[in-house]
Design brief:
alpha+beta; 3-stranded antiparallel sheet; 3 helices; 46% helix
Length: 139
């Protein structure tokens, strides 16, 4: 009697290779998912930080020139209700440039927002000029 060699089905090597390929593919997809999630969170935090800085500069635009000084820091922080994982510093200095010989006509407003994400510190700096209005210079 002849013994027939059955070629139907999968061998143990075929199954092992398939499992190995699926495991590698799943690992790659999982690492991509983690990286995308990390980047998404970073972008959201950065967006919030820029939003705080821009809103602070817009508030200084609305204030009269004489009120834009170092005491502005706490006022704007309270107005914007900064979240606890963010810190904002506002520095107001007299402009040092071509018109610096003119007394107190231009101020530089620097806004620095610092935030942390996964034990790393990040900083955003924005600056703007506050110019005295003509009617204010006569007062």
């Amino acid at each position: 009697m002849k013994i027939k060699n059955n070629q139907k089905g999968y061998s143990l090597i075929d199954v092992t290779v398939a499992i190995l390929v699926i495991t590698i593919f799943t690992g790659i997809i999982a690492s991509l998912f983690v990286q995308i999630s990390y980047n998404s969170s970073m972008i959201q935090l950065q967006s919030v930080a820029y939003n705080y800085a821009i809103r602070a500069l817009e508030l200084t635009d609305r204030l009269p020139y004489k009120q834009v000084d170092e005491t502005l820091n706490e006022t704007i922080k309270d107005t914007l209700q900064i979240a606890e994982n963010f810190d904002m510093q506002i520095q107001v200095t007299n402009y040092k440039g071509e018109y610096s010989a003119k007394k107190d006509l231009i101020k530089t407003v620097n806004v620095t927002v610092t935030y942390s994400f996964q034990n790393e510190k990040f900083t955003i700096n924005l600056a703007k000029l506050k110019i005295r209005e003509p009617q204010e210079s006569l007062i």
